[in-house]
Amino acid sequence: MKKISLSCFIAVVALCVFSGCSPKQPENDYTWLKQGIETAALQLKFTVAEIGDSIRLPRSIWTGYDTDFLCHQLDKKQLTDKDSARLKPIHDNLGSRRYCFSIYDWTSGFFPGNLWLAYQLTGDESLRESAVKFTNHLYPLREYKGTHDIGFMMNCSYGNANRLSPADSVRSALIQTADNLCGRFNPEIGCIRSWNFGKWNFPVIIDNMMNLDLLFYATRLTGDDKYKELALTHARTTMKNHFRDDYSSYHVVSYNNDGTVEKKCTHQGKSDASSWARGQAWGLYGYTSCYRESKDVQFLRQAENIASLIMRRVKTEDAVPLWDYDAPDTPQTPRDASAAAITASALIELSTLVEDGQAYMEYAGKLLKSLSSDGYLAKPGTNRGFILMHSTGSLPNGSEIDTPLNYADYYYLEALLRYMQVKEIDYKHI
Ligand code: GLY
């Protein structure tokens, strides 16, 4: 036995001496990471140049839908009148860049956020200048109260601005937004209201877990625990009502005014009972943040259980999930690169919060390598300037199917940053 080990060792050393490498090289080959960062910087600069002075906010690429395809994905013989009424009209500009309809679009903060993250990754001053310009454009949002998404909109833009280029006006805009988000909290129900549209009495979506980070940040900025306490109450109520026994989650839970549940259903998943891929990723990310901030172990268990569910239920070789974990397992079924990017980012953070996070880090590494491969990473100058291909926004609504999404790019960049921080990789030395 000893003899075999020794001869193996000699063979490895000999191989390394002759090939001029260190034994660890394959594991430490970060060419994929470098390619991801370089592509991101090129794509973002290309997009900024194409937009010119008009300041529009890129969101995705216009896609259409085919009714037979939708029926197959949703396991329905035909679409009901209700389904059909929800379908977004097919845009006559298929294939062109889709912009946010205004700064009040829920995704408006991601493009400025992408510029900030790419600046942080590369140190490229021109990216910082563009980030400032696009972030300033969102300034009126500090007064907006119409959706829970103000957390995404302001934290990804102004939150990153304050981290990388702090200023009093930026800090105040974040605190004002956090106050407005708290204004959507109903103490009887114990949740922040997500949407103002629809027929629900008080809809709360699993995505809302992502907006808690703005409240945690507001507590850090002000020293006032009220933001954090409110966020944790929301997280506890959501833990009680959004999750099934296997830790998969409903997309929408609507409440009656007395705090009882009115309805559990989906808006963007395959069915009310299915596990919508991005929803599971939002939940994982949200409960990881809650544990980071509170050190309450029930949030850690929740995050770990969601992580297990995701890793257990994935059907693809490269781990980039189908748009819904219950979607038909066929080559035609669209994937959701945004869910993969959010999951990767969350798992990297989770790996730092547990005693042995290796399995989470390895899974995140696998996701990031997949996303940085030719299958998902755009070639510079293509993909209308977006970084990643193959995400799915809202398939049951016929919207943004198998297309780039600005938030897939955002969480991909955030995950690259986190990965480099944990592994202590310096971009300049790759
Ligand atoms: N928060 C909306 C979505 O994930 O599509």
UniProtKB/TrEMBL annotation:
Gene3D superfamilies: 1.50.10.10. Belongs to the glycosyl hydrolase 88 family. This is Glucuronyl hydrolase. One of its GO terms (molecular function) is chondroitin hydrolase activity. Residues 1-19 form the signal peptide. It comes from Bacteroides stercoris. GO terms for biological process: polysaccharide catabolic process. Residues 9-75 form the DUF4995 domain. The keyword Disulfide bond does not apply. The keyword Hydrolase applies. It holds the Pfam family DUF4995. It comes from the Bacteria. Keywords: Hydrolase, Signal.
